[in-house]
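Review this:
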Amino acid sequence: MFMKWTPRSFCRSILLSSLYKMASTSPSPVMLSAEMETNNVLSVPECVRGMKVLDRDKFKKDLRVHCYFFEQAKATKALKVLKPYFLKIPAFQPIQEGHETCCRVAYLDPTKVTNGFQDLDLKARNTLLCLGLPGDTSVRKLTIGYNNFKADEILRAVIPKELDSVSGYSIIGHIIHLNLRPELEEYKSVIGNVLLDKVPNIQTVVTKTDSIDSTYRNFSMEVIAGKEAFETTTRENRCLFSLDFSKVYWNPRLSNEHQKVTNLLAKGDVLFDVFCGVGPFIIPAGKKGVKCFANDLNPVAIDWLEANIVANKVNQANVCVWSLDGSKFIRDVIKPALLEFSSGNYKIFITMNLPALAPSFFATFKGLFTPEEYSKIAALPQPKVRVYCFVKCPEAEHFKEASKLVSSAVDMDLEEEIDRIDFVRNVAPNKDMMMVQVKLSQRILVDSKRSALDEVKEPDPKRTREDIDSS
């Protein structure tokens, strides 16, 4: 089949031919030798390997890139065909203006198009030719640099091959938190500044310098890039949480667990949070109309919790707040509250998210009630305690080990009481965080040796310095 010749089509062909010839011979596009290419032309230059002070200029690299020129009037159809071949790298537009206003140029990925037009698949070539577009490309020199590489690409290139790169990090508002392994210590400045540059809206990069303190669940940290600004606001499960990351505990990797507990609850249900922090369980539950009893030994966490209650417009009548030791909260708040509750169609959950110590605090429930006291709560919905813990064993034994850990805390076989065990997250090799859900049965709660004359006092829900000091 022959194309129909017309004076108009002939003139357009002459015009395009001259444009394409000018594009390939003008001083701006430079023909490069094949020596400029490597096996992976888009990789970070090898010269940055082992860099300990970030030098952004060393990331510059020249590429030999095939470009395809086409008329602006045919851009929509041409771009659809060329899209799979675009050069897609950060901070670079693969479609640019040509030398004439009626001409556009597409920069093609050098890992896909190395020899020119013939590297396009047959259908793409035929479509472009049927549009009256050229059957060739021109080669340009393109200099890329630091801005054109992703953070993970840069870090993999900088850190020596025999060391593992940064495995991951958490984002809390404008803060990046990572746990750098000792062997990466000398590269922390580069790591911090790359993350500061590449992750949007980040002002501070910190690394943990010691283990989490089991009392207040915070830890010492070092700022490795950016400014010392630890007060931040983060969003989780459609709630806003403000906090001072240097003084309270927050882990965004627990967001799914927080949401899971919220989904278990409905208006009218009851939630006791023994270690509430700044409120990741309490705030979304309170917004649903759940009656919440919140506790944390850390007074700073309680201050932020109260601020978050206001900021998220939680009905303050739904939340009572204490700052007590966990065992004291169980004895002096949970117990009297249960004794006052009425029977009905609602659920009672108790969360204990302090994995390092929660099983030992769970032991407080053993023998908490006398037989006479238990008779007053027997008609209540059976409370369920979600005990979070760490297990260190082969993966196949995690569920068994978690059950054993919680059962041993009360020196009982809890096979009948444990109704759910969930994997929460991986913490380290052979170390996982687990959740064991336990139904508080009569045989756990009742100690037949206790006297029914034990006095039960209703505590003042307001925090006092004496409460904090005595706990």
Notes: Residues 155-229 form a domain with the GMP Synthetase; Chain A, domain 3 fold (CATH 3.30.300.110).
